[in-house]
Amino acid sequence: MPQRPLLPSSPPSFPPSLMSCVSSYALHGVNNKGVNKTMNAPHTHSPTVAVAVSGGVDSLCAVVMLHNAGFRVLALHGLFLPDGPTVAPAGLAEACATLGIPLHVADLREAFQREVLNPFAAAYAQGRTPNPCAYCNRAIKFGVLLDTALALGADKLATGHYARLVPGPDAPTDAGEDETSETYPLLAAAADAAKDQSYFLSLVPRQRLSRALFPLYGQNKEQTRAIVAAAGLAVPLPSESQDICFAPPTAQAGISAAEAYRPFLERHWQAAGTIAPGPGPVLLLDAAGNKREIAQHKGLWRYTEGQRKGLGIAHTEPLFVLTKDSATNTLVVGPRALLGIRTCVTGPANIALPPHLWPDRLLVRLRHRQRPCPASVQVEDACLRIVLDEPQFPTAPGQVAAVYDEEGRVLTAGVVEEMA
RNA sequence: UGGGAUGUAGCCAAGUGGUAAGGCAACGGGUUUUGGCUCCGUCAUUCGAAGGUUCGAACCCUUCCAUCCCAG
């Protein structure tokens, strides 16, 4: 399959120039007269940037960079987890105090429950495989958290995401002079392809991104750590927790990190009175198209398309989940050769750029860290119909399909409904 | 009840006298702001059982046990 790097492979030299940060589109608009007028910002020369801070090194780096660049910065920590702490991490307040910037704490637990946790559990109960990070970015970080930032008087909300904002081809060429038109940026992949998080941000509407700032867009993790260290700050939450944030692995019970979401779901369903889907047959599909029952599954929600580990079926070769049939409560498994998908259809898409402005050659990402693969995409009733040039490892209903151009810009994205 | 065949790890399976391959599964770890994929590591002092031959046996001999097939 054609291999074309989405982005330059070599990261920018260290240390990243703050000038480039300021002059890039990532910060473009902060000094835009029109935007400030819209926002009624009192000091047009000193825009205020709120930074969403978790306590991790990335968001802290964003604070440092913007602070060093001379912006008025306020730190904003959102409380998300229903059973989590009700105050910001201790070290975070300390770090903000060191820099002399205010720290606000927003209690967003109710919204997080409503917009992320409940849909997450509901999707699994339906046999889907949701992407909570994508929903969180759309509804929480660039939803209610952004609203909170604006209400606090900020012009922008910066986060520690590794993603880029670039002017879209449909943007007015001289937005600064045109006070009536808003300049909506396009989301694009970060410079460091290994850390790029544009996939998780691809459902955020473009209007919302016009208030976003991603200072880390051009650097890698090493540089991020170095910047924070150079500022003399200790990272409040040093561990790089990469799993589902609301379903941490339980130290006891031998639950591995990867399986932590299952106990979470069981607790959630029990509390909600939902009956978890039960056991059923596992059918083995062979190359000849024959099916035969070879095992029992423990509930379809425990499996996802393309899954290998955890099937517990000893066979002459590795078996993967091919399809899940909720109607018959059947799991179909088979050898790797039978896995590929060629098409998928999404629900209503977040269309960043009108389809008539799309280039001929499109690339699609069906999962985080996948090299975008060539495909053709059609918009039908605001939904995406994606036909891949080459068969790809399957995604799953509930996952995000993001469409890029060759420059790494996100043109549109949607949640997968069907695939074949 | 005769005749034939087969018994190697949880499953499949190589190995016919020289000191137990490999695959699957499982478990542990790496990677990762989702699930999944992927990568690395661990996993039979022992070859259905008991005797015998041999310097040496999963391999040869004897008996027993178990399973499968064909007859009846």
Describe the 3D structure.
- With 420 residues, the protein is an alpha/beta fold.
- 24% of the residues lie in helices and 25% in strands.
- The protein is built from 10 helices and 18 strands.
- The protein has helices at 18-23, 33-39, 57-68, 90-99, 109-125, 132-151, 198-201, 206-209, 221-230, 261-272; strands at residues 48-52, 72-79, 103-107, 156-158, 163-167, 185-189, 212-213, 280-285, 291-297, 320-325, 330-334, 341-348, 350-351, 362-365, 373-380, 383-392, 400-404, 410-419.
- Strand 15 (373-380) and strand 16 form a beta hairpin.
- The longest helix has 20 residues, at 132-151.
Strands of the largest sheet, in order across it? 12-16-15-14-17-18
- Reading the helices and strands in chain order gives HHEHEHEHHEEEHHEHHEEEEEEEEEEE
Number of helical elements? 10
Number of strand segments: 18
Q: How would the global form be characterised?
A: globular
Proportion of helical residues = 10-25%
| CA-atom Rg in angstroms | 23 Å
